[in-house]
Amino acid sequence: MPSILLIVTGSIAAPKALDLCKILLKEGYNIEVILTHGAKEFVSEEMFEALAITNIFSNIFDAKMEEKIGHIELSRKSDLVLTYPASANFIAKIANGLADDLASTAILASNKKIFIAPAMNVEMWHNKIVKDNIVKIENRNIDVINPESGLLACGEIGEGRLKEPQDMYQIIENYFNLRYKLVNKNILITAGGTREKIDPVRYIGNFSSGKQGLAIAKKFREYGANVTLIAANINLHIPKNIKTLTCESAEQMSDLVHDQCKELKYDIAIFSAAVADYKVAEIAAQKIKKKQHDKLTLTLVKNPDILANISKVLYKPKVLIGFAAESENLEQNAKEKLVKKNCDYIVANNIATHEIFASDENNILFINKKESHSFAGTKERIAEFIIKNIFKVI
Fold first, then answer.
1. 21, 154, 261, 343: which one is catalytic?
2. Which residues does 352 contact at the CB level (< 8 Å), separation at least 6?
3. Nearest-10 crossing angle of helices 70-77, 102-109
4. What value does the mean pLDDT of the chain take?
5. Catalytic residue status for 154
6. Rounded-to-5 percentages of helix, strand, coil across the chain
7. How far apart, in whole angstroms, are the C-alpha atoms of residue 91 and residue 119?
8. Do the Cβ atoms of 254 and 306 come closer than 8 Å?
C-alpha cells in the first residue's frame, strides 16, 4: 500500500488529523507523521502512537534519523506528502521558500506529490496575503485542498473549516486510483514549435515554448506512466526520467512519431506541438544575400499532417488528443478539427491575444464528440485537468 508523510501544523483543527489517520490505517496505508511545534499545542506524539503509528518526528535533528538526512529521507520514501491541517503561517513558509523546521524543510526537499489542506479563520482565509500565497503554492504544482464553509471553532461562520477526514481520504484515494491506473501506461507527447529552414541561417517558425506539452509529460510521469516526449526546439529543462527525442522540422517530427508508434503500442498520444503547416519547397544551400533581392518570394509546400496521418494507421495509439490554436471561432474550429483529424479529444487555445505563448498560464476548451469543458489556470493545473478528464477511457 502507498506511504503517506502526514504533516500536522498548529491549528485548532489538528485533532482531525487523528481521525484521518484512523481511516487511512484501516485502509492499509503506511503513515509517518511530522508534528510542528505549533501542532503540539493541540495534539501529542502519544496520541498518534496510540493509533500504532511508530514513526513520529518533530525535530529536524531528531536522534531517530541521525544516521540519515532526515528531511530528505522522509520526503523521498513517501508516495504522497500531505499537510493536514495547514495553518496560515505554514502556508506562508511554503509559498516563500522558508525552511526553518523539519516540516517546511521536508516539503522543500520532496520530489513527490504534495497536498496542502488549509484551516483557519474566515477572515484569514480571505486575506489577500493568504490568497497570494495560495497562488504561489499552486504555481509550484502543489495541490491546495480548499477549506469548507460552516461554523468555525472561533464561533464565526464562513470558509475556513478543514476538509473533513472522510472527504480528505476520498481525495487521497482518487489520487492513488488514478496513479494506479496510469502506472506503466505508455504515453507519447509532442511539444514545442517546429522550424522549417529557408537557408543555413533562417527558418520559418512559431512562438510555441513547449511549456504546456512539457507540463503534461511531467504530470504523466508523476503518476507513474512511461512517457516519450518528442521535443521540437524546446529551451526548457526536461527531467531525465522522461524519454526525450529531439527534432527540428515537421517532417522530422512526423518520422519520429511513426517510428515510435511502430515500435511500441502507445495508450495515449497527445499532439501539443505547434507544427508548421508549410515548408519551403527548396532550401537554399547558401545564405540568401539581401543585396541580391529587393523582394524575396518563397514557394511553400504542405508538411505532413501528423495527427491526421497517425489516426489512419494500424499502429495508432489507443487515445488521440490534438491541440488547436485558434484566433477566432474557437469552439467551432476545434470541433471541426476533432472530426477532420479523427481524434478523441481536442484541447483548444485562444491565441488571439498572443498571451499564452511562453506563459505559465493557459485557458483551454477541452472537447470530445459529446461535450466541451473550459478550464483556466497554470499549465501544470491544465495538465492535471486533461489527465483527469481522459481517466475514464484509459
1. 154
2. 327, 328
3. 50
4. 90
5. yes
6. 35, 25, 40
7. 10
8. yes
Cell 484566433, residue located: 327
The vertex-232 CA angle with 227 and 237, nearest 5°, equals 65
Radius of gyration of the chain, Cα coordinates, nearest whole angstrom: 25
CA–CA distance, 239 with 224 (Å, rounded to integer): 14
Query: What is the model's pTM?
Result: 0.78
CB-based contact 346:367 (threshold 8 Å): yes
Cα separation, 231 vs 237, in Å, equals 11
Which stretches within 27-127 are classed as H helix? 45-49, 70-77, 88-95, 102-109, 122-126
- 249: pLDDT strictly greater than 70: yes
Q: What is the mean pLDDT of residues 280-305?
A: 89
pLDDT tens by residue, 79-138:
999 999 999 999 999 999 999 999 999 999 898 899 999 999 998 999 999 999 998 998
